[in-house]
Amino acid sequence: QVQLVESGGGLAQAGGSLRLSCAASGRAVSFYFSTYDMGWFRQAPGKEREFVAAIIWSGASTYYADSVKGRFTISRDNAKNTVYLQMNTLKPEDTAVYYCALRSNRVPLDLYSNYQTYGHWGQGTQVTVSS
């Protein structure tokens, strides 16, 4: 019912930039994507999944992990059913598999960083930052 497909990952040098995209499709989101909150999470080898950024259904509010604040920007295009993560000034510690996730806008906003509140996930895209 919901498919999330990430793209845009790859290899970048420290200080460089990458832009991730996450396209949503499926019956549940085709006409209702604009009603869902979206998030980006990442997981590095041997580490737990961690919150990166989130954007509410309307795009009016965004949230960031302290580690990426000022460097990453989350945005969405509801007409294209797509959410983006612009990553600038990349650091080697940003190396991870990045996942986009979708959740109901009925979930309390203060839980935006809790991965358990997201019901649908993409397959992930690898981001590798070399020093």
Give the gist of this structure.
By secondary structure, this protein is mainly beta.
Distance between the termini: 40 Å
Number of strands: 11
> Which of globular, elongated, flat, extended, rod-shaped describes the shape?
globular
Determine the fraction of residues in helical runs and give it as a percent range.
under 10%
Low-confidence sequence ranges? none
What class would the helix/strand composition place it in?
mainly beta
Q: Write down the Rg.
A: 14 Å
The mean pLDDT is 95
SSE string: EEEHEEEEEEEE
Strand content: over 45%
| Biggest sheet details | 7 strands, mixed
Number of helices: 1
What does this protein look like?
The protein contains one helix and eleven strands; from the N terminus they run βββαββββββββ. The model has no long low-confidence stretch (mean pLDDT 95). Helices cover 3% and strands 48% of the residues. The strands form two sheets. Strands 2, 4, 5, 6, 9, 10 and 11 form a seven-stranded mixed beta sheet that branches. The longest helix has 4 residues, at 27-30. It is mainly beta and 131 residues long. It has one helix at residues 27-30; strands at residues 3-7, 10-13, 18-25, 36-43, 50-55, 62-64, 72-77, 82-87, 96-104, 120-121, 125-130.
SSE arrangement:
Blueprint: E1 3-7, E2 10-13, E3 18-25, H1 27-30, E4 36-43, E5 50-55, E6 62-64, E7 72-77, E8 82-87, E9 96-104, E10 120-121, E11 125-130
Identify the notable features of this structure and list them briefly.
131 residues, mainly beta, 7-stranded mixed β-sheet, 3% helix, 4-stranded antiparallel β-sheet, 11 strands
